[in-house]
Amino acid sequence: MKVNTILVKEKEKTFKLVDRYTELTIISDLRGLKLVEHELVARGRDHENCREKLLQGELEKIRIDQLFHSSFSTGTFWSWIKSFFWTSEAGTSAVVSGVAGIGKTTMVQKIVYEWARGEIYPDFHFVFIFKCRDLNSLKCEINLKHLILDEYPHLRNVVGELWKHPDRLLFIFDGLDEFSGRIDFADNQRFTEPRHMCTNPEFWCEVSDILHGLIQKKLLKGCSVLVTSRPTALHLLEKAQVSVWAELLGFVGEEKKEYFQNCFESKNVGAAVYKYVEENKLLFTLCYNPSYCWILGLSLGPFFTQKKMKRKPIPKTVTQLFSYFIYNILKHHCIDVENTHNVMLKLGEMAFNGICHKKIVFNNEDLIKYGLKPSQFLSGFLMELVEKESSEHSVVYTFLHLTIQEFLAALAQFLSHNPNLNRYLNVDEIEDGRFEIFHRFLAGLSSPQAAHPLEEFVQKLNHQTTCSVIDWVKVKVEAKIRDTDTVAGKRKLLNTFHYLFESQNHGLARQTLGSMKSLTFGASSARKALRLTPIDCVVLSHTIGLCDTIKKLDLRNCYIQDEGLRRLVPELHKCQELWLLGNNLGDSGMKALSEALRNRECKIEKLRLQDNGLTDDCTKDLASALSTNHSLTELYLDNNKLGDLGVKRLSGALRKLECKIQKLDLGDNSLTNDSIEELASVLRTNSSLKGLNLDYNKLGDSGVKLLSTALSNSKCKIERLWLSNNSLTAKCTQDLASALSKSSSLTELYLNCNNLGDSGVEQLSEALRNRACKIEKLWLESNGLTGNGIKSLASALSTNRSLTELHLDCNKLKDSGIKQLSDALRKPECKLERLWLRDNRLTDDCTEDLVSALSTNHSLTELYLDNNNLGDSGMKRLSGALRKQECKLQKLELGHNNLTAKCTEDLASALSKNCSLTELHLHNNKLADSGVKRLFVALRDSGKIQQLWLQSNSLSDDCTNDLISFLRANSSLKILSLESNFFTDQSVQALCEVIETNRTNLKEIL
Fold it and tell me: Where's the NACHT domain (predicted)?
């Protein structure tokens, strides 16, 4: 192999490929056929996660001699069936994806090298390599025969024989992302237009048609095809007949170390460079990519060949790294140029123009435009590429790496005496991210540590530019720090933190971060959260370290994984609230986090770790941390796999006096009654624990009996207990009722989704009648209750003065059950404030009793009646109650109740007189335009209604004017839901204009 060198005087250096080649990791999977960000930003995204999956056997590693092995074909039944036909008859199409610089072309060279030596793929007699970039120069029609002969003219006399044995042919197309032809396999025109249907090697057509025919097995059926591409072009292949999808991960584990050892003649220097990179969290995250390893080696190598006394500060940031990379190029090449400063300025201007226009390949005309000419000096920055050997004007140029192009573009702004900074600084508003790294380098070059090495060869970097960039960074941070509602806003804020990190200006960071109390990059769903890479986590850790006022860090669903968490751990102890749910931290991540919890200065009070793939393996470390931590009061571990063994270990820590946990969430952790004895022991000894969530486990009746014994203990201070979905029956309720009668602390009990039945509720009702019972909230949703079992509960409500919330959704109470509840609601002793009766098979027959109760009850403020069948007659009766002053309802839900416009006259009359109702839910009914018009008139002058839910009511443009009139007149409405109706765009626009032009309090229109 021959390579251009930049650190020695000879133009080329020759070595054997096998002497320098380090095996790259290829996986038999493709992590999403989607557009990927700049590889420095993305870091190959889930690289370390894939490493873990490889170790666990979840992903299969492919050697280069296995790419055309049928066992790696796409793992579907249809692919299995097709393999019987394609493996021998139709050949194999393989696609290998990888980011820039990951080693795709080197992999291709290694395949050809080993094939030529007879070590792999002996069934292939001919291997034809085509660089897709070279194919762009073919503007006219051509056939496969001439395409081969242009590259391999020595085959002229035998090319006709090749077609007879297509199974002996392998075609390699390297760099599909650089191909400019139309190659979209989702385009059905190719199957209908004869000029595109290339099925014969001598058929004249566009180059893209030849590629299409080979990959789709329409041309030379039986041949094999290998395509390499960056992820950005993979969407073109989604509909292609590809047998093997693979991704080039680059270096994994020891492969990184091996590369650095091969990179230097001295093994000691290679080991020293690797050790430094491994200890530098930011630089180490770049090492999966061979091109970055190369840059790291060239930049850092000189530091470890100098004597210690003469060593300069070693780079810590990406800007400093590239600054020393350029420094080493200049050190060995600037002797060939008269004015290094001017040439670097022109080169940077060309680089910036390329970024603006997403251009990475330049020709001689571009060089002339910027006053440049090919030279030994330029070869340190640009690679010459010959598109076609027979052409005289086929030489093009590309920067050694896209990131080098971006660095030089940024450097040019500091070399210019009169830079147009507004032009360069305002381009950050472009949403495709092309300027992200450019701006990071701008911020980084404002740092003396990054600028100083370059000033040895160019004039001192423009001080005015430095000041302007610092001011710009300050403005950006202050503007973006509160704009985190959208993913775009979160991304922009993160970028500003990258600017601060690259600038290494601690004074600027402290000034701009000011009194920042919370940071939010997460969200309740992964779609709305910002995925963070390990590099992002290094930067975030740096930011938190410089902010003394931080209290809450929200990284929900940011997918930081254990590698990202390790980068954050040094500063996490400063936060009081830490939201890390949905990050796939695993046990190794939990072990790292335990270090932060053990920190003597730890301030963490609330820690959310739901849905992180935790098992009992991590609980030793967590228990150790809990035994010494004095700050943590709330710990959320639901939706993991701790199991009984894990909870037993945690129980040991919870019994310690040092442990201050007040709320512990262990829902959905595969717990059984086997671990409950340990937890019961905790309840009897731990006086700080107030809330315990055990939802969605398998405790069973025996487990709850053990808990009940602990609840009866006077030392137990539990106030809230969650036992929903635990396979409970009436067998456990006698013990539970006994505990409720004795516990002086328990106020909330959640028993949803069990099978207590009528007999079980009768037992609990006995406890509710006991004056010692302090229960305020009782959840009995989905427990198989009927009207028979509700009798005892109604009796308890008649005397119980503590119960304020009762959840009875999804049972079978029917009208008879509601009549009994209504009797209890009429009693002055009943203090119920919120009552849930959704989905209980209710009809209008029960509303007369319900109206009677609402007309006399002064405590009930919320009533939930969704998913029943009250109908218009039932609604008319309820309207009668709403008209009365005695009715104190503030929230009423009547969705899915078969209501029509017929009931709205009575409802409108009630709303015009009611002074308490603030929320009205009428969704999924059939009110229609005529019905809501009456409601809008009634609510026009109402000063109370704040939320109105009318989705799915067959509304159309016919009611728009009435709705607009209502919105203009009503000043109290904050939320209006109109989803799933039939409004046209014209009506929607009219509504938006009203909201914008009128100063209403409306916050959401759905």
Answer: 92-233
Based on the fold, state whether residues 347 and 378 are members of the same structural domain.
yes
- Integer-rounded Cα Rg, in Å, for the chain is 35
Task: Give tens-digit pLDDT for 212-260.
Answer: 889 888 889 889 999 998 776 777 787 788 888 888 777 777 777 888 8
Produce one character per residue of 50-69: b if its CB has 16 or more CB atoms within 10 Å, e if not: bbbebeeeebbbbebebbbb
Tokens at 816, concatenated: 């008879």
pTM score of the predicted model: 0.76
Q: What is the three-class DSSP state of 974?
A: coil
Domain containing residue 792: CATH number: 3.80.10.10
What are the tens digits of pLDDT across the range 850-863? 998 888 888 899 99
Q: How far apart are CA 292 and CA 524, in angstroms?
A: 35
Nearest CA to 421 among 480, 463, 366, 370? Answer: 463
**Assigned token pair, 330:** 């200049």
Do 558 and 599 belong together in one domain?
A: no
Residue 471 lies in a domain: no
Q: Which domain holds residue 901?
A: 842-1006
Does 614 score more than 50 pLDDT?
yes
Listed ranges 647-651, 888-892, 974-978; the one with the highest mean pLDDT: 647-651
Residues 427 and 330 reside in one and the same domain: yes
The domain boundary residue, chosen from 649, 667, 693: 693
Based on the domain organization, do 107 and 236 belong to the same domain?
yes
Question: What domain count does the chain have?
Answer: 7
pLDDT in tens, 649-677: 999 999 988 889 999 999 999 999 999 99
Say whether pLDDT at 570 is over 60. Answer: yes
- Spatial neighbors of 426 by CB under 8 A, at least 6 apart, are none
The answer to whether residues 454 and 535 belong to one domain is no
Average pLDDT, the chain: 83
**CATH number of the domain bearing residue 239:** 3.40.50.300
In three-state secondary structure terms, 786 is: strand
Q: Which residues of 92-114 are buried (b: 16+ CB within 10 A; e: fewer)?
A: bbbbbbbbbbbbbebbbbbbbbb
Among candidates 699, 764, 697, 759, which has minimal Cα distance to 730? 759
Residues 236 and 266 occupy one common structural domain: no
pLDDT, tens only, 424-481: 676 666 656 678 888 899 999 999 988 888 888 888 888 888 898 898 888 888 888 8
Say if 466 falls within a structural domain.
no
Minimum mean pLDDT among 351-355, 483-487, 877-881, 935-939: which range? 483-487
- Contact present, 182 and 208 (Cβ < 8 Å): yes
| Mean pLDDT value across residues 869-873 | 93
Nearest to 474 by CA among 417, 438, 514: 514
Task: Take residue 901 and report the two structure tokens written for it.
Answer: 């416009």
Instruction: Mention every residue, 6+ apart, whose C-beta is less than 8 A from residue 198.
Output: 144, 205, 209, 210, 212, 213, 218, 219
SS3 104: helix
Query: Residue 577 pairs with which residues in a beta bridge?
Result: 552, 606
- Asked whether 673 and 646 are in contact (CB, 8 A), the reply is no
Write out pLDDT tens, residues 42-87: 443 344 455 445 444 555 677 788 777 645 454 433 343 333 333 4
Evaluated on CA atoms 359, 365, 369, 370, the torsion sign reads positive
Q: Where are the beta strands (DSSP E) in 529-601?
A: 552-554, 577-579
The pair of structure tokens assigned to 471 is: 């001011």
Q: Which of 401, 427, 461 is the last residue of a domain?
A: 461
Cross-strand partners of 748: 720, 777
**Judgement on whether residues 1004 and 856 belong to the same structural domain of the protein:** yes
Q: With helix as H, strand as E and coil as C, how does 178-227 read?
A: HCCCCCCCCCHHHHCCHHHCCCCCCCCECHHHHHHHHHCCCCCCCCEEEE
The answer on 864 and 748 residing in a single domain is no
Contact 171, 68 (CB under 8 A): no
In a domain, 39, yes or no: no
- For residues 536 and 556, what is the distance between their CA atoms, to the nearest angstrom? 15
**Which two tokens mark 672?**
């059984």
Q: Does residue 266 form part of some domain?
A: yes
